[in-house]
Every structure is written in C-alpha cells, then in structure tokens.
Amino acid sequence: MDDLIIAGEKFSSRLIMGTGGAPSLEVLDQALAASGTELTTVAMRRLDPAARGSVLDVLRERDIKVLPNTAGCFTAGEAVLTARLAREALGTNWVKLEVIADERTLLPDPIETFDAAERLVAEGFVVLPYIGDDPALARRLEQAGCAAVMPLGAPIGSGLGIRNPHNIELIVEAASVPVILDAGIGTASDAAQAMELGCDAVLLATAVTRAQRPDLMAAAMKAAVVAGRLARQAGRIPRRRYAEASSPMTP
Amino acid sequence: MDVIVGAGVVGLSIAWRLARDGRPVTVVDPAPATGASHAAAGMLAPVSEVTYTEGPLLRLGVASLRRWPSFAADLAADAGLAAADSGFTPAGPDSGTFGGRAGPGFTPAGTDGGFGISAQARAGLDLRADGTLDVAFGADDLAALDELAAYMDKLGLRVERLTGRECRRLEPMLAPSVRGGLLAPGDAWVDPRRVTAALLAALDRLGVPLVRARAGGLLREGDRVTGVRLAYPGDAEPGGPPELGADRVILAAGVWSTELADVPVRPVKGQIMRLRSPQPLLSRCVRGTVHGSPVYLVPRGDGELVVGATQEELGFDTRVTAGGLYELLRDARELVPGVTELEVADVVAGLRPGTPDNLPLIGPSGTPGLFLATGHHRGGVLLAPLTAALVSGAVAADTADTAGGAAMPAVPGAAVPSVPGAAGGAAGTVGGSTEADGSGRSVADAVLGDEGELADLCSPERFREIS
C-alpha cells in the first residue's frame, strides 16, 4: 500500500486510532498493536501529559505518533487554548480540532470549528479539523490552510457507518489535502467502504475499544483499510442491471 | 515482624488478617484511612460492573464478595461493634472475643437475603446485599443493556431483566423516563469509612502498633528488603524510631506505592459526592449510563446517598472541580430527579491505583522481603478480604521457605482460622517441609489451595518482563 502523507509526514498505515472507551490500558495496547496504527489521537482535556503510566506512555512504548485532540471543547476559545496546552506539553504542533455543538449528538459545530481552525493555522499549527460531511465546509477549511479534513461518517460512537457516502465522495473529489473519515465506523466493512470512496485514511476508536474482542476487531480494521485502499486503486467495475457472463458464452 | 505500609482498606485488612493469624505486624501510614478508601463508595458489585475483556477481574470480585459476610462478621466482632442499630459505638470487650467463634460453620444472627450478613456487620459497617439495579433511558442505552445481559448470561451470572415499570416499582424515586433495567440481586455494598474505622478499632484491640509516619524508603541488605525508613509529618520532633526493621515489608499504599517501589500503578482520579436525605430515596444501589457517561447512587443506612464517580487520568491531582461535580449531579438527576432537593454533605476526590490490566498486584514482588498489595483500582473495598487472604497465604509460604525447612515459629495460641481455607492454620500443618505432601506441589500451592489460580491472576510476576 502507498504511504499516507499529511503535512509532509509519511505514514505507512492509513488507520488512525483513538483511545477512548478501552476497558484498560493493556487492552488498548494490544488493540493498537493489532491495528498497526502509526498515528493515534488522545483527548488532552482528560489527561495530564506529565503523569507516569498514562495512555501517552503506551503510545511512546509503541512508537506511535500522538495526535492531541480538543475533544470536550464547545467554543473556539477553549479549543485554541487546549491546542496550545497540548503543543507545550507534548512538543507537537499537530492538533485534531474538535469543537462539539451539543452533548447529545456530539456533532461538530461548523462555525466554532472554522473560527478555531483559522486562528490555529495562523499560530502555526498543523490542523486536522473534525467536521460534518459537508463538502462546502471541507473546501473552506482546506482554503484556510488545514492539513487535512476529517468528515464524519455518522455521530461519534454510534457505529452507524457512513450515512451519506455521496457527500464523502464529493469531499474527496474536491480536496487536495488528505480526507480522513472520522467517527461512525461500526465494523470492518464501514472502514473498507470509506477507503473505497476515496478517503485517504480512517480514524476510529469505539468500534475497536468497545468490541467484545478489541484486538481482533483492530486486526479486522487494519485489513479492511488495506482492502478498501487497494480496491479504490484497482478501480471497481461499473454496476450493471443485468448479468454479464464472465466466461465466454460462444466458442 | 512484618511491616505493612499503608492504612487504607487493603493495608488494614492485611494487618488484621495477619494479626489474626498470630503474626506480629506493624502498620505505617502518616494519615490512616484518608486516601482512596475515604473517597470510595463501597460498592461490592462485581456482577453489575462486568464488561468485555474483564473476565479475570470478575472472578476476583466474585471470590472476594463471597468472603465479605464472614469478613464483616469477624471484623464487627473484633472491633466490638454492637448489633443494635445504634450507629458506630464499640460494645464491651465480651461481645465478640478474638478467637472465640466457630470457624467455617459460623452462622451469624440475623441474616440478609441468604447472603448471611450478621446484625453487627449490617448495623456497624452498613453492609447490605440488596442488589444493584442498572437502568437505561433511551433506545440506545436499552440496547446496550440487552447486550450486557446477554454477556452476563453467557458468563452464567444471575441477573434479571426488568421493564421500566418494574424498575420503578422497586425504586419509586427513579425518573419516569427509565425504560428498563438489569437487577443483579447478589451485589452488595458497605460503608468504607466504617470499615476502615472498624479495622483500626480491631487492630487496636489486638494490640497492633500503628505508626503515624510516612515510609520514606526501603531498607535493604544485599538484594533483600529488610524494613522501611520513616519520615514523620511536619518538622516537629520525630515521635518514633527513624526506621523499622521487618521480616517482610508489605506495600499496600495504593497509588503512593510508587514512591517506594517501581510498580506499574497510576493515579485514576475519582470525584464523589455525598448527599444527605431525611428519608432514604433508594433502597438499593442504582446505576445507569446517561448519554454514555456512567453514574451510580449508593444509599447508606443513615440516609446518606453517595453519588459517584468521575474517572480522570490527571496524575496526583485531588482537586474537586466544578465540571466533575456538575457531571455527577447532571447524571444523578437524570436517574433520580429528587436528588436536587438533598443537602450536600461532602465532596471529595480520591486517587485509585490503576494498573495496565485493571487487575491488582498481590503477592511477592520478586525482591526478597518485599510483598505487594496495590493496584486495586476501583475494587479496593470489594477485593480487601481476598487480598488479605492471598497475602496471608503468601506470607505463610514465605515463612516456610525462609525457615529453610525448620518448623514455623510457634504462634502464641491465636492462630485460629476463621475463614474456610485460612492459610495461617494450613501453614501450621505443613510441618516445616517445603514440599507439602510429597507430590511435588509447592508449599504455596498447598497453602492457597483453590486460591492458587486467583493468586496467579494478581501475581506481580506478570509485569516482570514489561518493566
């Protein structure tokens, strides 16, 4: 599989993991190992970066790049502050920008997200914004200087899969930065579908951490992302109404 | 002499158990019973807490829950707690003399739903076994509850699936929006503050010294740990010796165990709130998931209602925050709207000692002379009886080993086992051989019997290759 490149940095895995929802650090560690991920997002507001034995240690041990996120923020102001704290604490200027509109749906707030993205780009951050499946907003965020766009497939933790594949395709068509399908993945076929639609990577957490066997599901997701990417590159056949014999009917 | 570092529910339970085994022990803690045990809600709920991948933790929890009734009955007796519902007043010394009870067959007066809670344990420790009710609101929560029920069924756990109305018949103060629930009838709870107070009283009556000092470091001779260095709080005149020699140091200081040894334990902060109600709002533990965030309410016999608890990975931070309390109240109110009428009695944050696999570290550390009993995470109160038994077994095995084939030192008439399979008594029968019965089993196997497997689950050995 070809490399994923975000802001000039290469990753051989196209599966980005989240850490939320794991029953224990050991289960998380095994799942991350099985996923083959090289980039994993961590909620900075629920973590002391200096504490020993935290999820950050698990990532360091596995040599996985940390992508701090601003989960739990409701305003651009909070998100910018959280990103700055993360940069200071972790020494990375990468941030997954997540500004939530309400607790019930955890849908991203497009206006606050855009506002925060502009400010963070101006401060030199590599910004990866989590957004709805809105092609217009995706394009505006790219123009504002974001390093990638991360449209959702469905609400966080819902496992509903990709509810509007058409919009994801439209986002992919227009984007010249990586498109990362973020949120909504329920099982391996969802991840494969995201890649078949042309996404450059998939970000997921709950589908793995809350599975009955997280390590097994992580391995499934790894394989699905590879399969979907290869299928995208191979080019699928057109859909037909009627059969077309695969072996010649006439001698 | 053995030195136990840490006077929380785990350290005190070990000290009490070893003292009952007839071993000389000393407990070291600058501020007994003020750490995680002080914050804990005291749910003894291994069944309703079960989640995927946590099968081993369930086994430990169930095994320890089984020990709780006799543990509590013995403790209430040793601490001199009265059977009458008169709160926490020690009775006269004759009410329960040490070593004077029958062992395994002991049936306490006044039982509770087949769980066998003695009247003293109920009145004095607020030990109750009326079950946990796990409730759900929306269709999503309900589906999650069904999945949990299916998993519990697969594990052979006894739970009852209830409709919303059935839930509210059991607990009328529940919100009308409750759509269904799971009742784990065997789950219990206890007041951890009363437990630690009773343990301190029992130790006092058994003459176990409690040194109010911080263990500042371990004393070593060669590769062996031989005691602890003591640091006294404040810069006043040291109130005691600068160090304590020990045959064994048992590290039971929760998350602060990391100050003395390299153990894979991290602080997991929990904020918890105690509300006071004139009439009890609930008759059993109620828990629920409110839009994905879990909350529980534990009723106390004295009308207190405990609401818990956050789980935050913020290092050694025990600040009570606005956001933490807001989340607790927001979710508790969703379950039981009436909570907003109650008086706030107490808010506190404690640090759970979390391990990478959520299982505790109990047993020989690998360093001679140093034993571990830490990393109990959310289960210190539940796992205290089992932990005490496992440490007792490990100490007995160690005594037999270090005695190098000599008979165990005679125990002055006090080693009366009170729990089935008690290791102190069993070790006495080993008769000084390091082979228990000639079948090649080690003393530890013989002593622990079916506890062996549980001990393996908690063995610090499992992290040796990692750290």
Describe the structure.
The complex is a heterodimer of chains A (251) and B (467). Chain A has a 5-stranded parallel beta sheet with strand order 5-4-3-10-9. In chain A, strands 6-7-8 form a 3-stranded parallel beta sheet. A two-stranded antiparallel ribbon of chain A has the order 1-2. Chain A has 9 helices and 10 strands. By secondary structure, chain A is of the alpha/beta class. In chain A, strand 9, helix 7 and strand 10 form a beta-alpha-beta unit. Chain A has a single domain (4-234), classed as TIM Barrel, CATH 3.20.20.70. Chain A is globular, with a radius of gyration of 18 Å. Chain B has 467 residues and is of the alpha/beta class. Chain B has helices at residues 9-20, 36-39, 55-79, 119-125, 139-154, 164-170, 192-205, 322-335, 380-402, 423-430, 443-448, 451-458, and strands spanning 2-5, 25-28, 43-44, 132-136, 160-163, 180-184, 188-189, 210-211, 214-221, 224-231, 243-245, 248-251, 266-276, 285-290, 293-299, 304-308, 343-354, 361-364, 370-374. An 8-stranded mixed beta sheet of chain B has the order 5-6-4-14-15-16-13-17, with helices on both faces. A 6-stranded mixed beta sheet of chain B has the order 8-2-1-12-19-18, with helices on one face. A 3-stranded antiparallel beta sheet of chain B has the order 9-10-11, with no helix packed on it. In chain B, helix 1 (9-20) links the parallel strand 1 and strand 2 (25-28). The two termini of chain B are 30 Å apart. Residues 85-113 and 405-449 of chain B have low confidence and may be disordered. The A-B interface holds A 23-27, 29, 46-48, 50-55, 103-104, 157, 210-214 and B 51-54, 151, 258, 264-267, 291-292, 312-317, 354-358.
